[in-house]
Amino acid sequence: xxxxxxxxxxxxxxxxxxxxxxxxxxxxxxxxxxxxxxxxxxxxxxxxxxxxxxxxxxxxxxxxxxxxxxxxxxxxxxxxxxxxxxxxxxxxxxxxxxxxxxxxxxxxxxxxxxxxxxxxxxxxxxxxxxxxxxxxxxxxxxxxxxxxxxxxxxxxxxxxxxxxxxxxxxxxxxxxxxxxxxxxxxxxxxxxxxxxxxxxxxxxxxxxxxxxxxxxxxxxxxxxxxxxxxxxxxxxxxxxxxxxxxxxxxxxxxxxxxxxxxxxxxxxxxxxxxxxxxxxxxxxxxxxxxxxxxxxxxxxxxxxx
Length: 305
Description:
Blueprint: E1 3-6, E2 9-12, H1 13-17, H2 24-38, H3 41-57, H4 67-87, E3 94-98, E4 106-109, E5 113-117, H5 118-123, H6 127-142, H7 145-164, H8 170-181, H9 189-205, H10 212-223, H11 228-236, H12 241-253, H13 263-275
Helix pairs in contact: 2-7, 3-8, 4-6, 4-9, 6-9, 6-10, 9-12, 10-12
């Protein structure tokens, strides 16, 4: 039987065809394995880097220029990223703070690029909530949700061509399409549930109270009608009652514990944010790196390739 070879191993074409016929849980496991074969870590990093370039030059993204705040956020993120690094040691994790107070959101792109908006920092009430959000985004990368979405959206033929190196320009073409459609932000409900579970586990392992994440969701639900900025996060991460119940049940069933809320250090960070200049106006089409673009990855992370 013909086989598909990658640097990680071999998958038979017959096995790939089973994607359409397996039970849901088996299918997700197979999708993850296929994604790991068809989209290599180097290709994930290439896509993530190209998406960042698009953010910087076409969407006019500006990054928070206050080193103290950025260092704090990266430190909190690294508290949970360390567990993602154990599961995917080849990923070059990087954390960026987008200077936009009007947007309450966070997202991850392939290659370990994690982004959090200033608006979310100003909305969260403690360090445990921020850690849970960053752990959730780390989970998306660890589970290869973006690569899995590529396989399902573009089909095996296109991704096989990418894996075999037969179309060197395909990654750039896919990235352009992804940026236009927002594919990387449009995770399925199953992806979000899986990332929630990663988030709860990683936050708890770092000593944070894992209940901070559902508490954060509940507060956003209450503010939904009065704060337009909150709508952005809820549109990308729907805080349904079932989802909140599932997170709480998962915490209980896995006996996840943790007591650290980090209230005082987080309050100091938020107080510092209030002294900083307001977020700049967006400037699409700006060329070159945006003002305040972080020059280095978070402590402990390898520099970009």
